Task: structure prediction
Amino acid sequence: MTQTSCPDRLFLPNLTVLDDVRLGAQSLVSSAADLATPSVRIGITGLSRAGKTVFLTSLVHALLHGGHLPALQASRSGRLIGASLTQQPDDDVARFALEDHVHDLLHNRTWPNSTRQISELRLTLRFEPNSALARTLGRTSLHLDLVDYPGEWLLDLPLLDQDYETFSREALTRARDPERKALAQPFLDAMRRVDGAKALDEPQAARLAELYTQYLRACKESENALSMLPPGRFLMPGELEGSPALTFVPLDPPLNGKPAKNSLYAAMEHRFEAYKRVVVKPFFINHFARLDRQIVLVDTLAAINAGPSALSDLRDALSAILSCFKAGENSILSKLFGPRIDKIVFAATKADHLHHTQHDQLEAVLDHLVNDARKKALFSGAKVETMAIASVRATREASAKTGNDTIGAVAGVPMKGETINGQTFDGEREVAIFPGDLPADPAKLMGPTAKTYPLRFVRFRPPKLDTRPTAKPGLPHIRLDRLLQFLLSDKLA
Result:
């Protein structure tokens, strides 16, 4: 586990004076409310298949039901009295469907559906403070405002500091990369057949946007585990599907100077700016800029399994994510201009797919990826930690003999239809699997001499648990308590 303080630069998108005033007003209202009961607003995000919904479900379930959290000092010492769900602060944000997700995990033994929109829960913790003064003041409650949102939306925030030409250049460079070109070819072929200097043709523009969206979707579903996929709302359009703000694509600049106002290129440029104005900036101001702390979940294993190019793509995505955070220590003065994110956790999920002897290596790979990102996006006083976790532990540890050696394996029930070495599983029988070993040096996974370390993974069903009232509370997990201790130890002191 690695922790560091990051000095220097803040991410500051192009905001107007009115935007700054609005952020300051939001922060002042929040600070006034904190005088009654303190609150901490925690963002939970991650790129595709990282397990955001399962993470939030397990975390809240553990706090509500007294789950096993020995590394959380307030819980271990008995100072954490209890937790309850209370009315969330934002009436215009969907409530996280906690009860449905718990039912899926406990009773159906199925994984809940992935995050498709922003949602929120407020969990109020009651605790006995360490400080005699705090006990005198009666500060024995803390609101946790937990905000779950798709990581693809986070990758849109750097667009606020880009113009259309820069966006197009970077997007087309990625599309023409050898790892993506085959997936992007239908769009690239269609783009070559159009002239950006000619007048806008709406059916043509819609077809280009459809092909570009298909390319992004193919990247997301690719076995190469590609991560850099802005614009994020193209994959999760919601109520904006078919709108002009989602009907733009990157184009090569016209050869004959500035295009006319009625041209295809000018229309794409206008719609790109509209996307920033009506989609990205409201998300930043209304949600992202209000966060105090942030959890970023990463499906590191999938990227390792896909090889060096997938890891490089993931490193670039993490770099873009890190560049978005308005990070630093919070103070009364900083609250006047909106809170800063003062603690960030990057968590490699699905650690239960590996024997515990491999967890340090998994953590080291993620730390290596985040270190590269830190060099590009410097922080100002924020604390950053990396760890390997499993939100819900779907396996138990086992061992197997190979010759005279004993190797560490994991045992669980693979989901119906999963296969390894030609064997297809029925979703009912438990099997033991040796997933493979990670290199001791994570640098061996990336760079010109890197090689793929294929791991034998299957998706396991959630574990079968005793759901009787007398059963041990909480869902089994790996290191959720350590994550909570890092995030909340100062708030529960």
User: Anything to note?
Assistant: Confidence is low (pLDDT under 50) at residues 2-12, 330-337. The chain has two domains: 2-149+287-393+477-488, 160-277.
